[in-house]
């Protein structure tokens, strides 16, 4: 496989990191990179993206290296793919197709598989030509499951066995998928809102930042941990008991990446409901990565697209044990002075993270003063489970209690028990 990178004026700043990331994406998808072609241009060529001369150079290099696939680090138009394949005489894929291929491999739940299938079909629709020649590459059938790979890289996905199926059938399939996903989305939204009587925390971050490792460290849950891009597609939620006794629900979410395709974000909207409704976002960053600043920017871009501009966020610098260039890390830390420093792998700094999360959530709580009859076992049990008792004094047959608890729990306390209340 040969990688093709085109450095345009608006991508010069992070061009080198994008090329490294493309190679990692291809590796994650299970392919082998045998060569690379780089070109600087003021603007993409309308017919071949790289221009005819460079396309012929790529073809010659593919012959020399016996490469069967060419991958571009940009989205290509249907016409550009057609012209490139005609000139190079090789399969041509773009960045989005590689990401979709990885998503198809890692989709395990029904929801994730449907989301990937919808994203692939919507991407493929404008690229249909002839008798489904484009979709033939990603043939696999809906029943094939997450791992139903047929034909290698760029061939996993929804597909269609009958090449004569027309665009109308494809549109009908998209409509059907959207309808099915809407039902799942509605159920998912109800589930997320049903957890509104708990403080909720969502882990977000660039793919492979260590979110799953942190989730396992905080909750002791059995979480899949792989050193691969996009290893987590299905949101997992577990209980996390903080050191002060406060219980919160924490969710791991799909990792983000530069230029994450917009339609992919739309397809995974239900999965990202956890982010939208969370009380606090823990933005996990691989502090050992040389382009950590670029990763932070890419994640913030996706969060902004989700409408989380004003969401309470806490930056968490992870993988401190893997940092090799301390001087470079100090520069990073100086740019984000409020970040918490941890190593999810060995547990260093996790107590500091715990305390910071507890402090932020505590500020959302309400302080109440109550006079509760000793015989009111139900209310006392409710307070024991849902409140942090600051003061308690026995006065004959009543407990005089000062406590802090969530607003929704405070609303459930009988009015005749409340002496006073309000936010601190």
What does this structure look like?
- With about 425 residues, the protein is of the alpha/beta class.
- It folds into four domains: about 1-95, GTPase HflX, N-terminal domain (Rossmann fold); about 105-185, no CATH class; about 200-360, Rossmann fold (3-Layer(aba) Sandwich), CATH 3.40.50.300; about 365-420, no CATH class.
- Helices cover about 40% and strands about 20% of the residues.
- It is built from 15 helices and 14 strands.
- It has helices at about 15-30, 50-65, 80-90, 95-105, 110-125, 135, 165-195, 210-220, 260-265, 275, 290-305, 325-335, 350-360, 375-385, 405-410, and strands spanning about 1-5, 35-40, 70, 90-95, 200-205, 235-240, 245-250, 280-285, 315-320, 340, 365-375, 385-395, 400-405, 420.
- Strands 6-7-5-8-9-10 form a six-stranded mixed sheet, with helices on both faces.
- Helix 11 (about 290-305) links the parallel strand 8 (about 280-285) and strand 9 (about 315-320).
- Helix 1 runs parallel beside helix 4 and helix 5 (about 110-125) packs antiparallel against helix 7.
- The longest helix has 28 residues, at about 165-195.
- It is elongated, with a radius of gyration of 26 Å.
- Mean pLDDT is about 80; it is low at about 130-150 and about 155-165.
Set out the fold topology.
Blueprint: E1 2-7, H1 15-28, E2 35-40, H2 52-65, E3 69-72, H3 78-88, E4 91-94, H4 95-106, H5 110-124, H6 133-137, H7 167-194, E5 199-205, H8 211-219, E6 236-241, E7 247-252, H9 262-267, H10 273-277, E8 280-286, H11 292-305, E9 313-318, H12 326-335, E10 340-341, H13 350-362, E11 366-373, H14 377-386, E12 387-395, E13 398-405, H15 407-410, E14 418-422
Helix pairs in contact: 1-4, 4-5, 5-7
